[in-house]
Design a protein that fits this description.
Elements (H helix, E strand, L loop, with lengths): L6 H14 L4 E10 L2 E10 L13 H9 L6 H7 L4 E3 L9 E2 L2 E2 L1 H24 L9 H17 L2
Antiparallel strand pairs: 1-2, 1-3, 4-5
Helix pairs in contact: 1-4, 4-5
């Protein structure tokens, strides 16, 4: 048992989390000139696939280069790295992290963890509390999240 729930209910929670969580993506664009040619790189990056253990931001230049088939050991890649990437059209919790053409990875990771915690709490709360819009009551949401995190911290 985890979180005081039978294993079957815990597996159901994991399933519901995967359904409820929107995909986190961001569009990355970069335009550069090299040897008289203009290169316009444009890719939608799945941020959920970029999550690592270290918490460090992914190398967005490398992701764009790979999507465009640019060799990371080429002069073209060096020129690409010297240009700033413009970010836009974020989805999921990444929306708050994408502003004015920039992407704040630390903010995204914080928001993503908060959303994951909230989805876990929501599943439990909806099973035990009378029907109500849990998102509409920020004080209740904060209290439930604080309780969840306290239990999570004491389990370590």
């Amino acid at each position: 048992m985890k979180l005081g729930l039978p294993a079957s209910q815990f597996e159901l929670i994991g399933f519901l989390l995967s359904i409820n969580m929107k995909k986190n993506t961001v569009r990355a664009r970069l335009v550069l000139s090299f040897k008289g040619e203009t290169y316009a790189l444009d890719s939608v990056i799945d941020l959920d696939e970029c999550l690592g253990e270290s918490g460090a931001a992914p190398n967005f230049h490398q992701l764009l280069a790979r999507a465009a088939g640019i060799d990371p050991y080429s002069y073209l890649y060096e020129v690409l790295e010297a240009h700033e990437i413009e970010f836009s059209e974020a989805t999921g919790v990444a929306v708050r992290s994408c502003r004015d053409g920039r992407f704040d990875w630390a903010q995204f990771e914080q928001d993503r963890r908060e959303e994951q915690d909230w989805q876990r709490v929501r599943v439990i709360a909806e099973k035990t509390m009378t029907a109500r819009d849990l998102d509409a009551d920020p004080d209740l949401k904060a209290a439930l999240l604080a309780t969840y995190r306290a239990g999570k911290a004491s389990a370590r």
